[in-house]
């Protein structure tokens, strides 16, 4: 390949690389205004695929530039020579960090604890700052054009500004303003507990049924981890509540939380809310602990006189999360029709079974929350049965 072409393509790859890195910050920085439009689950998926493109550009940039400048010296010798300067070395260190995190995380994703995954991601902030120094010192087009310099500074300030505001400043501000602390921990079933959180002026901490937040409990054994949970209560001025099922090491010890423990809350997040309802006839489908956001959504809808049918699917009887509360809600409100579905007896829930249970389901906006395989199966089946995608509301509840 002609050296001039390699040089031009290498520089272009470098520019695209930096765009992609800054976009990564905005996509996964819990950017409030963006999350309200798309929802965090869609932003997380875009973050994943943009990360793949970032890795491609990250490999292309140094390879093409080294090829362009190698001449008769050979690729390896030229690469070593180019890394003799601190600024090129900073770029190489940034690349190594990004590649290591970008490759290790997908390979080890299922085995990594959430907190390890989280702290690995924090290394990427260091890498991006190293890349900026590399770009500032060695990017000829960057250095020699004043407008270009201003443009890039604005992009970096915008990306890091949003990150600092929403990822760090917002939860700290809410903690200072509301002084969140645990009011009580209540046993729901043998396998689930509800945590009630009190604070100052809770009326002004606004969230909608169906939303979630990331909770950090400032107690020994808990403070170094933060985990996402849906609000299982509707907004009120007395308490916030989350309901946690024992599904892992962290959730298994949630019962050990003490009254008075301070709580940092990062949120609210999510668009699994009544605002997305296409009409006033609703079908809610909850699988297992997916009832926590669904119960809150249902309560808001029925109090707004919507016509709501709720299919609550569990594997078998016993240890059903929030069962008593859902029963009481159905008994109190005639516009809520509760249908309990037990997959061990009735088989996997699918569009045919949904039709038998709720005959007019195609006339309703359908909300689905539960395990990701259940969501994917039902969404695919309902679309095949003729429902429009815009009438199927769901969020794949994961930050990874």
UniProtKB/TrEMBL annotation:
GO CC, one annotated term: membrane
Primary location group: membrane
Cofactor(s) essential for the protein: FAD
The FAD-binding FR-type domain, residue ranges: 175-275
Pfam families assigned to the protein according to its UniProt record, in alphabetical order: FAD_binding_8, Ferric_reduct, NAD_binding_1
Membrane-spanning segments: 12-29, 49-68, 88-109, 116-134, 146-169
Cellular compartments annotated: Membrane
Annotated organism of origin: Candidatus Yanofskybacteria bacterium GW2011_GWE2_40_11
A molecular function (GO) term: flavin adenine dinucleotide binding
Bilayer topology annotation: Multi-pass membrane protein
InterPro entries for this protein: FAD-bd_8, FAD-bd_FR_type, Fe3_Rdtase_TM_dom, FNR_nucleotide-bd, MRET, OxRdtase_FAD/NAD-bd, Riboflavin_synthase-like_b-brl
Gene3D superfamilies tied to this protein: Nucleotide-binding domain of ferredoxin-NADP reductase (FNR) module, Translation factors
Matches recorded under PROSITE patterns: FAD_FR (PS51384)
Identification of the protein by name: Oxidoreductase
Keywords, sorted A to Z: 2Fe-2S, FAD, Flavoprotein, Iron, Iron-sulfur, Membrane, Metal-binding, Oxidoreductase, Transmembrane, Transmembrane helix
Domain of life of the native organism: Bacteria
